Structures are given as C-alpha cells and as structure tokens.
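For the sake of transparency, this paper describes our internal protein records without simplification. The record that follows is passed on verbatim for readers who wish to inspect the format:
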Amino acid sequence: MKNRILIVGSGFAGMWSALSAARAVDAAGSAGQALEVVVLAPEPRLHVRPRLYEHDLSDVAPSLERLFKIVGVRFVQGHVERIRDADHAVDYIDETGSPAIMPFDRLVLATGSRLHLPPVPGLREHAFNVDQLAGAVRLDSHMRGLVNRPFSAARNTVIVVGGGFTGIETAAEMPARLRSILGPQTAVNVIVIEQADAIGPDLGPGPRPVIEQAFREMGIAMRLGTTVASIDSDGVITSGGEHIPSETVIWTAGVRASGLTDHISSDRDRFGRLHVTPELRVRGSDVVYATGDVAMAATDHLGNVTMMSCQHAMNMGRSAGHNAAAELLNLPSMPYSQPKYVTCLDLGPWGAVYTEGWEREVVLVGPEAKALKQKINTEWIYPPSDDRAGALAAADPARIVVA
C-alpha cells in the first residue's frame, strides 16, 4: 500500500506544494512509486486572488486539472471539515455531498486565509469585498448595474474600508472603473476609510508619498484615524458620527488564517497562523506541515517572518511539498528561506510603486512599475505550462521566485 501525502488546498501554496512533492517523487526514481500525492480542494483551480480587485475577471481562475495529471498528482474534490492528526486522517464532504474520510501519512495544510468580518452592524448585509472570486463577481455585477439607478451622490460614491495593500489597490481602480460605467464626464467620489493615522500603515513610510500623490491626482479622498460604526443601504456612519452616502461599500480590512488551523494543537500568531519549523512542519506535530497563509515562518535570520501574500506562499509551497515527500522518501530536506522581499503595489491608471527590502525602498514608480506589476499579475504568479519537465523544474524549492 502506498504512503500518501495529502495537500489540502489548491491555492498558490497548495499548487506549488503538490508540484514540489511530485518533483521529489520523480527524483526518487523507483522508490517514488511507493508515494502518492493527493490534493483535496473544492475545485481543481487556482484562484488568482491578487487580481480580484481588477475589473476584468475573465482569467483569474485557471484550471489545474491537466497540470496535476501530467505530473502525477491525484485531485479529489471536496471540503475538509475536520483534521484528525492523531488518526492521520481528515473528514471531508465529497463532490456528491456525502461525508468521507481521507487517510494520510503526511498532511500539508494550505487552505489560505479569509477576510475577517468584525461585528459591525450592516457589514454582512450591505458591504462588498474582493476577498474571494464569488465576492469579486458580485461586486462587478453590482457596479455594472449602477448605470440603471437614479442619479445621486450615493450612486456615484465608492467607499473602501481599509487602507492596506488590498484597499489601496481596490481604491485606485475605482475612479476610472466608475466612469467607464457611468460615463467619462461623471463626477465620482472614491473615499478610503483607514483606522490608522496614515495610509498603508503596514507598508511603512517608503512608498507612502507615492501612494498619496497618486490618490491626489486621481481624486481619491482619505478619512484617516477613522473607523466604520455601521453600514446600511445608504452608506456608512463613521466613528466620528459622519454619514457618508454610498451605494457601494467595499470592505478590505483584515484577514485571518483558515479556521482549519484550529484543529491542530500548536502555537499561533495574531492572524491565526501556525508556528512552523524551517522545514515548515507545524511545531509539535510529527505529521503536519503548514504553508502559505496558514503558516508563520521565518524568511531569514534577521527576525523577518512571512507575509500573507502569494510572494511568500509560492516559495513556502515549494518547500513544504518537497519536505513532506523527502521525509517519506529518505531524501534531504530543504529548509525554507526567502531573504529578499519586494512589493509592487498597483495604483490603477496612475501606475504603480515597486519597492525592495523590508524597509521598502522605492525603486520604480509610475508606468515603469505598472509594467512590472502587469507582468507579475499576468505571468509570474500563474501556474507553469502543461509541460511535465518544465513544471517539475519550476517546483524546485531551491528556485526562489520574487513576485
């Protein structure tokens, strides 16, 4: 009977874990025939989450079915409900809606993160988000329908709650997106509400002047040091008691690791991420690896840790998949390390800003940075081509990709 590596999740970390594990199986030759690599996820697709703020959603969920087949990864459709690491098994609901059990010898948890929705009155009923594809599609449908609504300040106003990475990219798209729907001469309002006293608080002071300049030139307003007290169909009421009319409120503030992390006994950080070893094994577990947004890993020896981003998830996946397989195949492990850190923040039609290092030193701005961002979003973060040798080579954990 074959040993089994079970990878839960088909996002960036899950996909690259599967390819890297398949690469290790291939490298082991005849010994690799004793190991099966299985991906368990709701569908065999990679949802390109970093693009969900964009107006064009036509190519943001590429299929992984053929890619998995050519590298020898078995895909099982389903939703995991419980992890029983002591029993080396997960309970899941299969594609027919029936309960099922999947045993494993090693588990790679790669179920990502979700937008955190605090108990703000009206948030769930009246706000939109771009966290998952269904939410982005719902927002797009709503916005396209605005042209059929009576003229009003609320119709012409978009409020983005959260001035972090996603909030900034989403807001930067909105002035041009609104005008493309309502007409090029329409007076539109885009407002970002951020509880910190500065835009992009987690991005630091490096790119902030560029973001502020882009917002000024695009006419995007900011309410800093402000939170949302409630949301209704007419807009929001801020913590200061101000009512801002809007028919389009987009919530981008805060994410949390997948709730499946609660099923594993280990320390977590404030985002719910599991603490892992350099090999990405969950601390305290003999059989569970965690990768991507469910894992907090050191990126270097300077105290920096992974961000919840595809930049880190892709390389963490390569390491986790390899190490889970290597343990069962008696191959050398390859500790995760990613000392180089970059950011490339889309600023809509204005351009983008590209920074390097944890201090986020600005390297490129405007059209040059935008060209790089488009290459990242449409090429670098997509699955490798359906070529077996090329796909396995791309999954080498020694191949650190910065995107």
In short: Residues 12 and 314 are 5 Å apart (CA to CA). The chain has two domains: 3-115+255-339, 123-251. The chain has a mean pLDDT of 96. The first helix runs from residue 12 to 27.
